[in-house]
Description:
By secondary structure, this protein is of the alpha/beta class. The chain has a single domain, classed as Lambda Exonuclease, Chain A (Alpha-Beta Complex), CATH 3.90.320. Strands 1, 3, 4, 5, 6, 7 and 9 form a seven-stranded mixed beta sheet that branches. Strand 4 and strand 5 form a beta hairpin. Helix 1 crosses helix 2.
Amino acid sequence: MLPAGFQFSQSTLQDYVDCPRRFQLRYILRQAWPGVRTEPLQQHERHMDRGVQFHRLVQRHQLGIPVEQLERGLDEELAGWWRAYLGFDLLHSMLGRRYPEITLSADLSGARLLAKYDLLVVSPNQGITIFDWKTSLKPLRREFLLKRLQTHVYPYILARSGGGLLGTEISPKQITFCCWNTAAPSEPVIIQYSQEQYQQDESYLSGLLAALRAEVERGPAVWVLTADEHRCRFCEYRSLCGRGEVAGNFEEMDDFGDEIDPSVADFGLVDVEEIGF
Ligand code: SF4
């Protein structure tokens, strides 16, 4: 069974879509990690730490803390990410109210679905823009992002539940999703949401949640292991699954590296402050 009060997120649903067995091990069996995700471990951990620091810096900057105060003592790599962020004119020239690190939720198919946004900007005449910060090693491809649950869950929940921020209903076509990556700061991926996409997302997410819940109710059998063994190279459970002993090399991590985004790590089991409607 899922732990009491379990709340779904793009991250937990992505685990299920990528590999049902990973979802089962991580969230139902709460299996302790028997392996490391990537080698060298220290390099991976440093990258994760920097990612957390970067998210925190941006959050504080968006809350109005002066740049000079924030940029003291940054290491070289973090300082580079920070300068790139400061040069992100699209964001800094945008007027409107800002909501950094805000969580919204909605009920769907009898489950609670959460989205934790890095930043929402509500512009007077430009609708709402979702900003998401990535610290992936490589530029993110638009086609890849379009397949990710985050690209669908975030605008869907905002359309469902964001009315409380504006005091009026939000139309899906008012929503834009902007994914900005430190590896390609001048090439943010911008995706416009729509009514049609909203309906497709509702249908897809409802079906996914229903399938997942049915699987949970079926009992303790081992869930399906992914057929894409490339995923196993960067999965901490590979020895449990008989999918190899050796961790994938950190620098070879491709788009799947997005899964370690510290802004969403452990999401689903943590306590979060949320706004639900
Ligand atoms: S090692 Fe592979 S099969 Fe096992 S949980 Fe991880 S991704 Fe799934």
